Amino acid sequence: MDNYSSRSNESAEAAVTLYGDMLFRLCFVMLGGGADAEDAVQDTMLAYLRSAPPFENAGHEKAWLITTAKNKCRDILRRRRRQADAGRLEETAAELTDGDGGILEALMSLPEKFRLVLILHYVEEYRVEEIARMVGKTPSAIKMRLKKGRELLREKYRKEYM
Q1: Share of residues in the chain with pLDDT > 70 (%)
Q2: CA atoms within 13 A on the CB side of 113
Q3: How far apart are CA 123 and CA 7, in angstroms?
């Protein structure tokens, strides 16, 4: 059975037959698209083959599959959000002029977690609470990243441009 647990191909086929359409609909609604929904269902079934626990009954199996599919969808949404954030950062950088005195270069050299919150807060003008929701962190974590990011930016700017 290769790298799979005791879960058999027959039980996986039965799960796909019983729950495949329902899982696809759930993922389709959560992700708003067919290709990503198919990927999420496929990842869910692979997780079923690899690591599903023994189930007490069919309801327990269904609940496990729904929870796993929901988590796979969240992973895809997080990945999309990170890609969108990176794209926004690149757009913002392109909009800034060369007359910024080196601040842009210093900002772009910061680690992503600091660069992102600085751009969202100071350029895009999002509040700390909004940024916290976007990146999945607490407001206090965002405040700390803003503080550390400002310190790092100040250091880099002084070293390279003064």
Answers
A1: 82
A2: 10
A3: 51
Whether the Cβ atoms of residue 118 and residue 135 lie closer than 8 Å to each other: no
Cβ atoms 76, 31 nearer than 8 A: yes
Q: What is the largest distance, in Å, between two alpha-carbon atoms of the chain?
A: 69
More confident residue, 78 or 144: 144
Dihedrals φ, ψ of 150, to 5°? -65, -40
Do residues 27 and 36 touch, judged by C-beta distance below 8 A?
Answer: yes
Which domains, and CATH codes, for the chain?
Answer: 9-79 (1.10.1740), 96-161 (1.10.10.10)
Place of tokens 């019983």: 18
- Using one digit for the tens of pLDDT, what is the confidence trace for 92-150? 555 554 455 667 777 778 888 898 888 888 877 888 998 898 888 999 999 999 999 99
Q: Residues of 115-143 as b/e, b for ≥16 C-beta within 10 angstroms?
A: bbbbbbbeeeebebeebbebbebeeebbb
Measured distance CA(24)–CA(134) in Å, rounded: 26
As a whole number of Å, the end-to-end CA separation of the chain is 63
